[in-house]
Amino acid sequence: MLNFRSAAGLIALASILSLPAAAQRQARTPTPNDTLKSPEVLPDRQVTFRIYAPKASEVAITGDWITHGRAKAGPLEKADDGVWSITLGPFVPDFYSYSFSVDGVRTLDPKNAWVKPGVTSLSNMFEVPGDDAAYEETRPVPHGEVRIVWYQSSTLDTMRSMHVYTPPGYESGNAKYPVFYLLHGAGDDDSGWSTIGRAGFILDNLLAEKKAKPMIVVMPNGSMPPSDKGPAFQAGRFADELLKNVIPYVEKNYRVIANRDNRAIAGLSMGGAQTLRVLPSNLDKFAYAGVWSMGVGRESTAGFEQDNAAFLDNASKTNKELKVFWLAVGENDALVGESAKNLDQLLTAKGIQHEFHVTEGGHTWINWRHYLHDYAQLLFR
Amino acid sequence: MLNFRSAAGLIALASILSLPAAAQRQARTPTPNDTLKSPEVLPDRQVTFRIYAPKASEVAITGDWITHGRAKAGPLEKADDGVWSITLGPFVPDFYSYSFSVDGVRTLDPKNAWVKPGVTSLSNMFEVPGDDAAYEETRPVPHGEVRIVWYQSSTLDTMRSMHVYTPPGYESGNAKYPVFYLLHGAGDDDSGWSTIGRAGFILDNLLAEKKAKPMIVVMPNGSMPPSDKGPAFQAGRFADELLKNVIPYVEKNYRVIANRDNRAIAGLSMGGAQTLRVLPSNLDKFAYAGVWSMGVGRESTAGFEQDNAAFLDNASKTNKELKVFWLAVGENDALVGESAKNLDQLLTAKGIQHEFHVTEGGHTWINWRHYLHDYAQLLFR
User: Fold this and answer.
1) A7-127 — its CATH code?
2) CATH dotted code for B7-21+45-134
3) Over the stretch B164-214, which tens digit does the pLDDT of each residue have?
């Protein structure tokens, strides 16, 4: 992974040019923290995590590889110099996220400035490089741009942001492109798919290998402003935001092919729920859909059937219009595993063509990056 | 500030669609942390910071308003429920950054996911809204795009990223634009000017008020890969990277006016040092320069004079070519204040026309955003 978002990339300010003697005199007693490295990815793909906390009585680590079932983690052990550490793995080559808990306080790794922001899901990132991660790495291939775009939302009466991936060649060319609307999960925002989600890099690598059609990927902010009016209201607000603001903005400002055969949608978790909300009543707008790590609970199946009768009860029409309907969930997803299976069974019972993939792992970005990689290859064919 | 990067924007996953009963059963004992809010900006512009750390014996806060001299901060006080808190201010309306220290361990605010990433300068952000901050706020005006761009660096033999601001109207128009190369400080990366630096928003607001010429702003990554060869080598690498990779990439891929009258450069701290390295031998490429919170130490003045004799000893030529040379430093900048004054004196002694602004405050983004706001108005006139 050839970037330099780590502490090792720092050039000390004082050494750039000669600085005043006063600044250079600011010496202090060194601590083990000064030279501490964390995380350290070892040649055998084990990873050592360290944190300097001499007064702490308990330090633990949480990470998405644990939810995924790839490795476990006990408490860190304290050395005499106040440094707590643990070595885990070996890890499958991939990108991972983690945070510490120091005496019960959630603490990012002070030695690792590579972070994944989010509404509530802030955590550190690291990469274990290797062949398994090649599909999502920053490789020497042509790269598209990820653009941070602010627009005035008429439905929410505020400025909102979205991230927009334009493929290599967009800037210098004149071609028009299909558009894939890619939705994040709860606790996240429109940056998630471009940090831990690696969406731009996954598309860059697919395009370099000619495994996907060139496309624009639009990643809106799916987290609505707070409301007491309940989840159905919030899901409706997102649908309005997407259909009345995001899509019109994109189709006005980018070179897109604006018809249903050239629009796709997919989302993970909350974004999967939003996809299930938008899709059935908007088959005139989307020919491709993905629902990842989300489903419909058994207790709300009747309501879902009732709300979406036109979609579910006209299988021949739905099947003709929906070119790809791609569902996936991790086999260890305690949160939505049963709901996802229930949705698969409902669609099967209704005769709605779809793919349902039960993969390894849990409710994690480890899976969602792979789902994007697999799904994007099927679009706009 | 109308965005929703705070915890308040979260829609609970479980409430989106009906989830399996198993997930809903995952109850646990509530703690004060569950409903804790931090930071809380009060109506009188005081701000309360809180962190749940029942086992800690000492919690402190550091923030850039302290360095700037706007408010002080003692240790937080612990309540019986394990929540530490402190109320500071009132604050001048502005954007601020901070972090906690919990028993000596640097800890981001677990309740505030709005963060400023960086190579080593990770911290939380918050805004105190108000008229003084209007110039940098996300306002309902036309917005440009901030693009994350990856390119192959021939000088560093790796993929590198830069952030590129394109002004409102760039995407839909055909005009060519001048380019401003804007450099960050040590410990930071190319994202800094677009997070805590607010560069895109500052430009958007200036353009909406017709106080600046439409321009592209290129924010490269100034942090070089680690090297044992010393600071002069690293500064030379950055100059190579800028001149041989960044500028050619920009001029190939964007609609720019590629001549000296339409190129500007400026940088803060390390970026100011990089500007001082690049500018004197490249007056054929830049007609505007800014050096912010950086200078030349007295002990290295002779070397600086020797290295830049052609620039310093031909004042009439330099003054004819350099349309704006804009230096600024905070009056409380202990790190580089004396160096900046020394540079001002050297330039004055040599007859090199320049502006030197000694502002309030210290070595902080509070100043750098204002410097950008003031300097950008002078460019390309």
Assistant:
1) 2.60.40.10
2) 2.60.40.10
3) 999 999 988 899 999 999 999 999 999 999 999 999 999 999 999 999 999
Contact of A1 with chain B, judged by CB distance below 8 Å, is answered with: no
Q: Phi and psi dihedrals of A203, rounded to 5?
A: -65, -45
**Stretch(es) of chain B classified as CATH 2.60.40.10:** 7-21+45-134
Tokens of A359: 């993969």
Yes or no: domain B139-376 corresponds to CATH 3.40.50.1820: yes
**Given phi > 0 = left and psi -120 to 50 = alpha, else beta, which region is A144?**
beta
Which residues of chain A form CATH 2.60.40.10? 7-127
pLDDT per 10-residue tile (average), chain A, 381 residues: 30 38 52 92 97 95 89 89 96 96 91 83 92 97 97 94 97 94 95 96 98 98 91 91 97 97 98 97 98 96 96 98 98 93 98 98 96 98 95
In sign, the C-alpha dihedral spanning A100, A106, A110, A115 is positive
Find, in chain A, the residue whose alpha carbon is nearest to that of B299.
Answer: A18
Q: Answer whether A9 touches B (CB < 8 Å).
A: yes
Q: Distance (Å) from the C-alpha of residue A185 to the closest C-alpha of chain B?
A: 8
Q: Which residues pair with B128 in a beta bridge?
A: B94
B window 288-317, beta carbon within 8 A of A: 294-300, 303
Which residue type does B265 have?
A: I
The verdict on a CB contact (< 8 Å) between A13 and B186 is yes
* A121 closest CA partner among A74, A164, A64, A56: A64
Contacting residues of A for B187, CB less than 8 Å apart: 10, 13
Q: Which 117-176 residues of chain B touch chain A by CB within 8 A? A: 117-122, 138-140, 143, 145-152, 158-161, 164, 171-172
**What's the CATH code, domain A136-376?**
3.40.50.1820
pLDDT in tens, B224-254: 998 899 888 898 999 999 999 999 999 999 9
Nearest by CB to B122, which of A115, A139, A234?
A115
The residue of chain A with its CA nearest to that of B53 is: A105
* B269: region left, alpha or beta (phi > 0 left; psi from -120 to 50 alpha): left
Enumerate the residues of chain B whose CB falls inside 8 A of the CB of residue A194. 148
Asked if the Cβ–Cβ distance from A334 to B23 is below 8 Å, we say: yes
Question: What's the CA gap between B17 and A235, in Å, rounded?
Answer: 9
From CA A251, how far away is CA A234, in angstroms rounded? 24
Comparing CB atoms, the residue among B10, B117, B300 nearest residue A115 is B117
Which residue spans of chain B are classified as CATH 3.40.50.1820?
139-376
User: What CA–CA distances, in Å, run from A285 to A243, A259, A260, A294, A322?
Assistant: 9, 7, 4, 22, 10
Locate CATH 3.40.50.1820 in chain A. Answer: 136-376
Instruction: Please tell me the pTM assigned to this model.
Output: 0.92
Interface residue A235 vs chain B (CB under 8 A):
yes
Which of B:36-55 have CB within 8 Å of A? 51-55
